[in-house]
Specification:
This protein is of the alpha/beta class and 504 residues long. The chain is built from 20 helices and 14 strands. 51% of the residues are buried.
Length: 504
């Protein structure tokens, strides 16, 4: 049985192959259905000083000598701004949003902030996909008090019945504080300034919401001041993390990401766990291809054999491989982590991120994985993201397979991207056809050029064509914006990153 487990479409909206440095094409429509849990009565909400960091979503740190799950908190350079925004929100209401890479420490920093600035607030931390509109009714019928809504991974709560500008405005008028976190690449996706269609999509809702919030960015690599502060704390885990701080962020290292990566890479040997390594690679490549959710273990079993090395390595049994890949290591996480449904698993999020950053040692994603990712992703938002990743990997055939059904159903963004692909390959007639489909989308008709001879993005110059002046001169703007890289309807994560050469 093949089953997908997607807690929200935002789970899939990670930049190309999990790589926050890669350019992304414009305007995906991401829809999310919010269900989740029913909010408890306000009188049952715990106080901030009563909850612990792990319950609130902070990654465990590596376990050493039976010490606590987390080392002492080290003040981050952003803490002053975090405290200022939280103190203001604790009095007047409103949202405080922290963004950063995976395992950059944003959730721990946010948790430290609420402990410091609002320890006596009653806090509600819903699970992803929860309907948030009932919270307003509960708060209105509750006795007076100070209240906090905690949204770790904000993208999982966006929607008409979730967090949106209307709900945020209502909560702010009620003097309720909202503290949220979001990964940088997802913030870039949702804060794209040209979202005019799909008003029920979580992308459009998130876009409107993020315009009203000034995010605080928590950097992955620690500054020299942060390193000095950490060096004064007598904790072996911090001491070890500091020795690797030139390459890895301290929070990243504490969450055992590099150690898990090394364990996985070293397993492909005689006496190791070569079948387990193949199992992990399968899940990692599904994430790199755009399917970032958990899947049935039997799907991974079916796919993993193509990654098995030479038989001379004597691969272990399937049961041994599964046990090794799913076992919690360093007291933090397994290489595979469980999904919400029984017998579903996905790669620990650090692994596909790390693979995507390591351009020199990256392996190609097998054709069968691209096809399986599409077969596991019937939803439009999933197909959109797989198409983006395929395009950036030079796999035009899979990008076309992902986008054609969307374009035929009137998605102007998909039609625009198909036109660009066919223009690149010299098929002007096909490009004109998809431009005509695109022209039926009001957003694209008004905002993007319809002339198929105009390249939307030139990787040689890093410029985007946004139309023409009255004299016929093409309007060109830089693709990248420092920090988040979002500019004029094109999403990007960093500078100097080009698309892979398309497959022949």
């Amino acid at each position: 049985m093949r089953r997908k487990e997607v807690t929200s479409s935002g789970d899939a909206s990670v930049a190309i192959g999990g790589d926050s440095l890669a350019p992304i094409i414009t305007n995906p429509q991401i829809y999310v259905s919010l269900e989740g849990e029913v909010p408890p009565e306000v009188t049952d909400w715990p106080r901030v000083h009563e909850v612990d960091a792990l319950t609130m979503g902070v990654h465990k740190a590596r376990t050493l000598d039976g010490r606590a799950s987390l080392p002492p908190y080290i003040l981050r350079d952003a803490d002053k701004e975090v405290a200022a925004q939280m103190k203001r929100a604790a009095i007047h209401g409103g949202m405080v949003l922290l963004t950063g890479d995976s395992t950059s420490g944003k959730t721990r920093t946010a948790f430290h902030g609420i402990q410091r600035c609002m320890p006596d607030h009653a806090v509600y931390a819903p699970v992803r996909n929860s309907r948030l509109t009932p919270v307003v009714h509960l708060l209105r019928s509750a006795p007076g008090g100070k209240f906090l809504v905690w949204l770790d991974d904000l993208e999982g709560f966006l929607g008409q019945d979730g967090m949106n500008t209307s709900l945020l405005g209502t909560l702010e008028r009620m003097r309720v504080t909202v503290v949220a976190t979001m990964q940088d690449d997802l913030f870039a996706t949702y804060s794209n300034p040209k979202q005019e269609s799909g008003r029920d999509s979580s992308l459009h809702i998130g876009n409107r919401l993020l315009r009203a919030v000034e995010p605080i960015r928590i950097t992955r690599l620690w500054s020299s001041k942060e390193i000095r502060r950490a060096s004064r704390v007598p904790d072996d885990r911090l001491t070890e993390a500091i020795t690797h701080s030139a390459t890895f962020g301290v929070s990243e290292y504490l969450a055992a990401g590099p150690a898990l990566m090394k364990t996985w890479r070293n397993a492909e040997r005689v006496g190791g766990n070569p079948r387990g390594a193949a199992l992990v690679q399968t899940s990692v490549d599904l994430a790199r291809a755009g399917f970032n959710a958990a899947v049935d273990i039997d799907v991974l079993e079916e796919l993993h054999s193509q990654y098995l090395p030479d038989a001379t390595l004597r691969p272990e049994s399937w049961d041994e491989a599964k046990k090794w890949a799913t076992a919690v290591q360093y007291g933090v996480s397994g290489l595979l982590v469980p999904g919400e449904d029984d017998a579903t698993w996905r790669a620990f999020d650090y692994l596909p991120d790390a693979v995507s950053r390591d351009k020199e040692n990256q392996s190609e994603i097998p054709e069968s994985i691209w096809k399986e990712a599409l077969s596991l992703s019937p939803d439009d938002d999933d197909r959109w993201l797989i198409g983006m990743r395929a395009y950036m990997a030079g796999k035009n055939e899979h990008a076309i397979a992902a986008w054609e059904p969307l374009a035929e159903n009137g998605n102007g963004s998909a039609a625009s991207n198909l036109a660009e692909i066919y223009l690149e390959t010299g098929d002007v007639e096909a490009a004109q056809y998809w431009r005509s489909i695109e022209s039926e989308d009001r957003f694209h008709t008004d905002a993007l050029p319809l002339d198929p001879e105009i390249r939307l993005y030139d990787p040689d110059t890093g410029m985007v064509s946004a139309g023409k002046y009255r004299d016929g001169t093409v309007i060109q703007i830089p693709l990248h914006r420092p920090g988040y890289g979002v500019i004029h309807g094109v999403i990007a994560g960093g500078r100097g990153v080009e698309r892979a050469t398309p497959s022949p």
